[in-house]
Amino acid sequence: MNYRHSYHAGNHADVFKHAVVLRMAQLMQRKTAPFCYLDSHAGTALYDLQGEASGKTGEYLEGIARLWGRDDLPPLWAEYVASVAAQNADDTLRYYPGSPQLIAQGLREQDRMILSELHPADAATLREHFAADDRVAVHQRDGYELAKAFLPVAEKRALWLLDPPFERADDLERCLAAMQVAIQRMRQTMIALWYPIKDERLLRDFYRQVAAAGLPKVLRVELTVRPTDTTMGLNGSGLMLVNPPWPLWEELERDLPWLARELGHAGAGAWRLDWLAGGP
Ligand SMILES: C[S@@+](CC[C@H](N)C(=O)[O-])C[C@H]1O[C@@H](n2cnc3c(N)ncnc32)[C@H](O)[C@@H]1O
User: Fold this and answer.
1) Which atom number of ligand 1 is nearest to the Cα of residue 119?
2) Quick one: DSSP state of residue 229?
3) Under a CB-based contact definition with an 8 Å cutoff, are residues 193 and 162 in contact?
4) What would the pLDDT profile of 175-201 be if each residue is shown by its tens digit?
5) CA-CA distance, 265 to 27, in Å (whole number)?
6) Domain ranges for the chain
7) What is the pLDDT of residue 90?
8) How far apart are CA 143 and CA 100, in angstroms?
9) Which of 149, 190, 249, 277 has the most CB atoms less than 10 A away?
10) Measured from the CA of 18, which atom of ligand 1 is nearest?
11) How close is the Cα of 94 to the center of ligand 1, in Å?
12) What's the pLDDT at 200?
C-alpha cells in the first residue's frame, strides 16, 4: 500500500468525483427517510493543501484552486465549492475535505455513515475525527468486503462510494465483482465507482464487462483534461453511477461542459455521459 491521497487531494479527479457524490447524497436527502453512506476506501477527513505532500505535487492548483473564489460557477460546482469553503475560516483555500468529511457535513440526525480505510494512520485519524459522532462507524478493513459485510442496510437506502487507489492490475475486476455483490444484496443500492483514465484504450474491456454485468442502471460519466491516447499520467477520470438519482444526469449535461473547459489543458478538456445499462 503505497498510495497516499494527500498527494492528490483537490486535483481535477477529486473535484469531479466529490461534486458528483455530494450531489447524489443531497438528492437522497430530498426524502426525510434515512440513508446510509458507505465509503469503502475512505482516505482521511481533511487534507492540508499547504502541507508537504500537496506542496510536492501541486495537483490541487489544477483542480479546486481553479474554481476557488469564482462567482460564475454553474450550480453543481458552486454547491461543491461552498462545501469546501465550509472547511476554511476565511477566503484562503487551505483545508480540503476528503469524501467522508464532505458527506458528513450534510448528514442529518437520521442518516448514518460506514467508512473503511486500510492504511493504519488514515484509519486512526478518521476514527479520532469522528469519535464524537455516533452516526459514523470507522473500520480498518478491506473496502472490497464492505458490501458483503453491511448490505442490505436497515434504512433500505444506501449510497456507496467505491474509490480504490488502483495500485493493482485487477482492481477494475475487483470493483465490478464488488458492485455485483452489492446489487445482489440490495438492488436499489446507489453506487459511484471512480476510475482513472490514462490510456482510454485500456478501459474498453472494462466498459464491455460493466455493460454485461447485470447491473440495473449504469450511467458512465467522464471528465478528461488531456488527450486520452497518451500515457502521460492521469488524463482524466470516470464515474460508473449505478442507480443514479434523477435529475443528476440532466444537471451533469448542463454543467460538465463548463468544467471540461475550465480544467482542460490547452483546450483539450472533454466530457462524456451515456448509459451502459438501463436508461433514464
Ligand atoms: C483514492 S484514496 C480515497 C480518497 C477518498 N475516497 C476521497 O475521495 O477523499 C484510496 C484510499 O484507499 C485506501 N486503501 C487501499 N486499499 C484499500 C483496501 N483494500 N480497503 C480499504 N482501503 C484501502 C488507501 O489507503 C487510500 O486512502
Assistant:
1) 25
2) T
3) yes
4) 999 999 999 999 999 999 999 998 777
5) 31
6) 5-277
7) 87
8) 14
9) 190
10) 8
11) 22
12) 76
Q: Which residues are within 8 A (CB) of 134 and not within 5 positions of it... i.e. 6 or more apart? A: none
- What is the fold of 5-277? Rossmann fold (3.40.50)
> For atom 27 of ligand 1, which residue has the closest CA?
43
The answer on pLDDT for 232 being more than 90 is no
> What per-residue confidence (pLDDT) applies to 199?
75
163 is a catalytic site residue = yes
Structure confidence at residue 2 (pLDDT): 86
Mention every residue, 6+ apart, whose C-beta is less than 8 A from residue 48.
6, 54, 94, 95, 96
What kind and span of H or E run contains 204? helix 204-211
Q: Which pLDDT does position 116 carry in this prediction?
A: 98
Beta partners for residue 116, in sequence order: 139
Q: What is the pLDDT of residues 64-121, one digit of tens each?
A: 999 999 999 999 999 999 999 999 998 999 999 999 999 999 999 999 999 999 999 9
Cβ neighbors of 136 (< 8 A, separation 6 or more) are 100, 104, 107, 112, 113, 115, 130
Taking the CA of residue 47 as reference, the ligand 1 atom at the shortest distance is: 9
Expressed in angstroms and rounded, the spacing between residue 85 Cα and the centre of ligand 1 is 23
For residue 104, the 8-state DSSP code is H
